[in-house]
Amino acid sequence: MKQYLKHSIAFTLLLLAVLAIGSGCNPANPTSVQQDCEAGIEFKLDGTLIQFDNAQVTAEIFNDAAIGKFYDIWTDENVNGFNGFYFHSTVTETGEEADFAPDWFVTSDVANLIFLNDKENVNVHFKIIEGANAVGDHVEIDFQGSYIENGTTHQITDGKICTSIDVVH
């Protein structure tokens, strides 16, 4: 009996370990951007979530002779009184970073959110988490920072562009 009890405890512990490890490999809970990067555009502006569903977002790659490769990712939708969203960036490769730049037609690394162009003291930072090169490729970009409008400081937090490329020009 003692031998049986010893083996059943070992078997039970082994079974529990296999179940615990296996539960982390659930395909319904993907961890790769390639599997789950379909959110669209979302960020918090002063704590209020602004979210554009992926179906509302168009993502384009341009290969321009003068300034090189750049992204234009945009929507014309109106969400929570926020009229559209337009992102332009010449930082396009995984790991590249840039701060907001109001002049986006330059060859140096720039990133721009059009709605910030008329704001003061814009301090927004962008990072390419996953770059894209072809139609269907996923692109993921994180951003956050602050700006001043009419004397009031606004915070952008938890910013994420997470979509797939629709067109390459």
Would you summarize the structure shown here?
The protein is an alpha+beta fold and 169 residues long. The protein is built from 2 helices and 11 strands; from the N terminus they run H-H-E-E-E-E-E-E-E-E-E-E-E.
Please explain how this structure is put together.
With 169 residues, the chain is an alpha+beta fold. The protein has one domain (33-168). Helices cover 15% and strands 49% of the residues. The strands form two sheets. A six-stranded antiparallel beta sheet has the order 2-1-10-9-8-6, with no helix packed on it. A five-stranded mixed beta sheet has the order 7-5-4-3-11, with no helix packed on it. Strand 1 and strand 2 form a beta hairpin.
Percent of residues in helical segments? 10-25%
| Count of DSSP-assigned helices | 2
The average pLDDT score comes to 80
Class by SSE composition: alpha+beta
pLDDT < 50 runs, ≥5 residues: 11-35
Summary tags:
15% helix; five-stranded mixed sheet; alpha+beta
Present the secondary structure layout.
Blueprint: H1 2-23, H2 33-36, E1 40-45, E2 48-52, E3 58-64, E4 68-79, E5 82-89, E6 97-99, E7 111-113, E8 120-130, E9 138-149, E10 152-164, E11 167-168
Parallel strand pairs: 3-11
Antiparallel strand pairs: 1-2, 1-10, 3-4, 4-5, 5-7, 6-8, 8-9, 9-10
